[in-house]
Amino acid sequence: MRKPPDLPKLIAGIRASDRASLAQAITLVESRAPKHRAPARELMQAILPNTGGALRVGLTGTPGAGKSTFIEALGMMLCGRGKKVAVLAVDPSSSRTGGSILGDKTRMEDLARHENAFIRPSPSGNSLGGVAARTREALLLCEAAGYDVILVETVGVGQSETAVRTMTDFFLLLQIAGAGDELQGIKKGVIELADAIVVNKADGDNKMRAKLAKVEYTKVLHFLHPFTPGWKPKALTCSALNCEGIERVWQLIEGFRDQLTESGVFEARRREQNVDWFDSLLQSIVMERYRAEHGQQIQRMATAVKDGQMPVSVALDALLGD
Ligand SMILES: Nc1nc2c(ncn2[C@@H]2O[C@H](COP(=O)(O)OP(=O)(O)O)[C@@H](O)[C@H]2O)c(=O)[nH]1
Ligand SMILES: [Mg+2]
Q1: Is 200 in the pocket of ligand 1 (CB under 6 A)?
Q2: Which of 22, 176, 186, 287 has the fewest beta carbons under 10 Å from its own?
Q3: Domain assignment of residue 122, given as a range
Q4: Are residues 138 and 189 in the same domain?
Q5: Average pLDDT in the 125-138 region?
Q6: Are residues 64 and 198 in the same domain?
Q7: 129 with 90: CB under 8 angstroms?
Q8: Model confidence pLDDT, tens digit, residues 200-212
Q9: Residue 63: pLDDT band by 50, 70, 90 thresholds?
Q10: Among all ligands shown, which has an atom nearest to the Cα of 200?
Q11: Does any domain span residue 35?
């Protein structure tokens, strides 16, 4: 983005749901160039009244579980019903791998071409915090552009599931039936974040195993404390490849939204998520500034602590002193 953005035009374009304007706006908020910060802030302020209207769905699962295929199937189903679907990604490793979704566009060929769909690869960056912050802003921009459903995909690098959980309403874990031990290969704790576990590839020879896995997951979920107050996480099966069971997954998500809207949890959580976002940005910005100003002292204290010359409490006092 070389020329300064024409903000009024950009904002009008977003409100008119013009995809090129949306893409350009996301590029602006993803930019780390200092000269883009002020216009990016102005943009976010301007579109704020038009945000909040989408159902935000997080999706995680190990590579190969079928996330891209699932997004294509669900996305095409929703687009076929006249809904507008945006796909975003949180993948802090994508600067290395070249962007998971970008490569995946081949698996989402029909969706990528559909006029109701918008697909955006993960912003580059090596800090999860930065990637997540920019994805949140992209999400709000998609809402302002009139997208009804926003799917946020993550491959589960580091803490990225937690980051996606904190920016979405519904969190879906896509699994495949393993050989015997269903809990193998899943990072501990991810199940606890899920509102649903969907066992994919329930087709052909694999159908029976997928059904058994679903039974296992149902048992596991029964003993876990639900992440979303008042919601009992469910296990389902589907075949993203054959578009089977996708409708049931969507019904579950809509049922979730209706139930939680009724109980007030839906809105309450979004408000909390905003405060969490504010808190985590505040933390990282304050840290960044402090490090920029006091880098050398921090380094000295860290060395002293490392060499056992100073207790941590004393080093902190020396730094922050009072
Ligand atoms: N049999 C079968 N294969 C599937 C299904 N969903 C995805 N696959 C295949 O699994 C592989 C990985 O799928 P992909 O969507 O790229 O997984 P991702 O890495 O989680 O995004 C591809 O070869 C897909 O064709 C399914 O429902 N059934
Ligand atoms: Mg993929």
Answers
A1: yes
A2: 287
A3: 51-262
A4: yes
A5: 84
A6: yes
A7: no
A8: 999 999 999 999 9
A9: confident
A10: 1
A11: no
